[in-house]
């Protein structure tokens, strides 16, 4: 976030500098052209950084981490997002973290990586019941029993077609 702020301010200086140069060369442009150019450059860089965040973040993920679900953002104060929404969060499945239990092969324990723009990523360990299309997050106090079941947490019905459930259940350990 700090680097994006620096890039936006730098773009403002570059935009203002180019506008001053153009104004000096053309000698007829009004003085308000300089701050308009600086603001336009800053807005352009800020929008570009918003739209490129998802791609830059996914490119930095290690091999074996699959993006399962994205969250697109639309906002009234950014009217262009209704035509072209941008991704400001996503959930990825760490396929290398997959564990199965021999007594319950239809269940898989995987790490979910949750990313959001301007928020630190978080890791949630979850158990997926692939046969019944449900998920249980492993929270403090939860434990795995000898028969592969989970105690101390609640199951959430997601359905077998939910993108995160599908990605976690397709993982081959």
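Sequence proposed for the structure above (173 residues):
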């Amino acid at each position: 976030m700090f680097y994006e702020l620096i890039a936006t301010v730098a773009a403002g200086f570059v935009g203002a500098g180019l506008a001053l140069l153009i104004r000096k060369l053309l000698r007829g442009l009004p003085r308000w052209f300089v701050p308009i150019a600086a603001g336009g450059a800053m807005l352009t860089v800020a929008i570009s950084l918003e739209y490129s965040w998802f791609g830059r973040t996914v490119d930095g993920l290690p091999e074996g981490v699959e993006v399962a679900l994205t969250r697109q953002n639309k906002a009234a104060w950014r009217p262009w997002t209704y035509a072209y929404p941008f991704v400001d969060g996503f959930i990825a499945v760490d396929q290398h973290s997959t564990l199965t239990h021999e007594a319950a092969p239809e269940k898989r324990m995987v790490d979910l990586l949750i990313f959001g723009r301007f928020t630190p990523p978080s890791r949630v360990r979850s158990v997926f019941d692939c046969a019944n299309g449900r998920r249980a997050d492993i929270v403090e106090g939860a434990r795995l029993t000898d028969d592969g079941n989970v105690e101390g947490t609640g199951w959430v019905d997601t359905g077998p077609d939910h993108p995160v459930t599908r990605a976690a259940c397709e993982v081959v350990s």
